[in-house]
């Protein structure tokens, strides 16, 4: 299937695997790209040296193109972009809008750019700045998300910008791919669906928690890091939702201390990270501390396999998934379903 996205990225199929912290490492990304999709490394939870090693591991497994997600507010963001340029990585994706300087740095080095957006005005802004594509995530998506569903947000953005648009939030099969194409998107991006594959590094017990969820099994909460965050509903998350100010602050301090020990950060460095998260937001100090140590809560679930002690970002689509195929099996299934759906639509016409 040829679309503007496959031509831009050089992949065989218009299916993107998103950069999920502690999940989208060398194994998952290489498996996705080798199967004809486009894998994206989650570098926000990796030190620079680990990112460098991850790129080499991917290249040892496949010569297919892939991308890297970069935090625009990371203190070493420019160094990471320079690494992508040196390693000839195809795409830099961004959860937050990149600065004009970062976009220019990528363009000068031959690296494509694709920020994620949750509003039409954000898409228009970054398109004017010269990005190559935008990923549009509707409210059904996991992790940080907005209130507008994909079916309303996607056509708005497609009509507003002239660059390839990738649709995210609620996609898991070939029907969804065809629906996104019908709206004018050039492809789809999936996080939860790729997390629930045999190539994903997440522990089996954690995957079973996802598989057991129904479509009402997620919740959008601000109690994780101060901004709307869609996660699986668990007793731990429910306790965050019920906690009063004193309890929330106590838990935040305890989690921050654990994160400080695990990361090796000093208390001043941790507080500086907390202040950075407060920029432009009306957050309590409890929320600020929680934001600073959110990686620790993700690590507890995604890496340590302890869902009772952490949070699990999840799209509502988790309630529609009931198996753990390989990335190759998943992508082949999606493309087969999409072909059948397109044939059926042609017959209707």
Describe the overall structure:
The protein is built from 15 helices and 11 strands. The chain has helices spanning 4-9, 26-34, 48-61, 77-86, 100-109, 120-129, 150-160, 174-183, 192-195, 204-211, 235-242, 245-263, 267-278, 285-302, 327-348; strands spanning 15-17, 38-42, 67-69, 91-94, 112-117, 134-137, 143-144, 165-168, 187-190, 218-221, 229-232. The mean pLDDT is 90. The protein is α/β, with parallel strands linked by helices and 349 residues long. The strands form 2 sheets. Strands 1-2-3-4-5-6-8-9 form an 8-stranded parallel β-barrel, surrounded by 5 helices. Strands 7-11-10 form a 3-stranded antiparallel β-sheet, with no helix packed on it. It holds the Pfam family NMO.
SSE topology sketch:
Blueprint: H1 4-9, E1 15-17, H2 26-34, E2 38-42, H3 48-61, E3 67-69, H4 77-86, E4 91-94, H5 100-109, E5 112-117, H6 120-129, E6 134-137, E7 143-144, H7 150-160, E8 165-168, H8 174-183, E9 187-190, H9 192-195, H10 204-211, E10 218-221, E11 229-232, H11 235-242, H12 245-263, H13 267-278, H14 285-302, H15 327-348
Parallel strand pairs: 1-2, 1-9, 2-3, 3-4, 4-5, 5-6, 6-8, 8-9
Antiparallel strand pairs: 7-11, 10-11
Helix pairs in contact: 2-3, 4-5, 6-7, 8-15, 12-14, 13-14
What is the CATH architecture annotation of the largest domain? Answer: Alpha-Beta Barrel
Please tell me the overall pLDDT. Answer: 90
The profile of the biggest β sheet is: 8 strands, parallel, barrel
Order of strands, widest sheet? 1-2-3-4-5-6-8-9
What is the string of helix and strand elements? HEHEHEHEHEHEEHEHEHHEEHHHHH
What is the CA–CA distance across the termini?
Answer: 20 Å
The CATH topology of the largest domain is given as TIM Barrel
β-strand amount: 5-15%
Q: In DSSP terms, counting alpha (H) and pi (I) runs of 4 or more, how many helices? A: 15
The portion of residues assigned to helices is: 40-55%
Return the CATH class of the largest domain.
Answer: Alpha Beta
> What is the number of strand segments?
11
- Structural class designation: alpha/beta
Pfam families: NMO
Keywords: Dioxygenase, Flavoprotein, FMN, Membrane, Oxidoreductase, Transmembrane, Transmembrane helix
GO molecular function: dioxygenase activity; nitronate monooxygenase activity
Protein name: NAD(P)H-dependent flavin oxidoreductase YrpB, nitropropane dioxygenase family
């Amino acid at each position: 299937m040829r679309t503007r996205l496959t031509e831009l990225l050089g992949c065989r199929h218009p299916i993107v695997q998103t950069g999920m912290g502690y999940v989208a490492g060398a194994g998952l990304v290489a498996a996705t790209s080798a199967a004809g999709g486009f894998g994206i490394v989650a570098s926000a939870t990796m030190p620079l040296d680990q990112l460098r090693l991850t790129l080499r591991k991917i290249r040892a497994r496949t010569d297919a193109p892939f991308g890297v997600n970069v935090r625009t507010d990371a203190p070493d963001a420019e160094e990471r972009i320079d690494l992508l340029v040196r390693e000839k990585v195809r795409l830099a994706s961004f959860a937050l809008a990149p600065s004009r300087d970062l976009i220019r740095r990528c363009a000068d080095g031959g690296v494509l750019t694709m920020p994620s957006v949750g509003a039409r005005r954000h898409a228009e802004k970054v398109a004017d700045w010269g990005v190559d594509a935008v990923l549009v995530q509707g409210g059904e998506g996991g992790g940080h998300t907005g209130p507008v569903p994909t079916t309303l947000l996607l056509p708005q953005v497609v009509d507003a910008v002239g660059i390839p648009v990738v649709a995210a939030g609620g996609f898991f099969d070939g029907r969804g791919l065809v629906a996104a194409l019908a709206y004018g998107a050039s492809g789809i991006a999936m996080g939860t669906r790729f997390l629930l594959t045999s190539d994903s590094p997440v522990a089996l017990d954690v995957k079973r928690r996802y598989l057991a969820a129904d479509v009402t099994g997620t919740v959008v909460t601000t109690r994780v890091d101060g901004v709307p965050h869609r996660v699986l509903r668990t007793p731990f998350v429910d306790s965050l939702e019920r906690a009063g100010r004193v309890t929330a602050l106590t838990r935040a301090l305890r989690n921050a201390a654990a994160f400080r020990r695990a990361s090796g950060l000093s208390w001043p460095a941790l507080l500086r990270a907390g202040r950075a998260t407060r920029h432009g937001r009306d957050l309590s100090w409890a929320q600020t501390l929680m934001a600073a140590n959110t990686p620790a809560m993700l690590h507890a679930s995604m890496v340590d396999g302890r869902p009772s002690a952490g949070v699990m970002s999840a799209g509502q689509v988790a309630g529609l998934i009931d198996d753990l195929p390989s990335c190759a099996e998943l992508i082949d299934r999606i493309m087969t379903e999409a072909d059948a759906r397109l044939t059926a639509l042609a017959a209707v016409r």
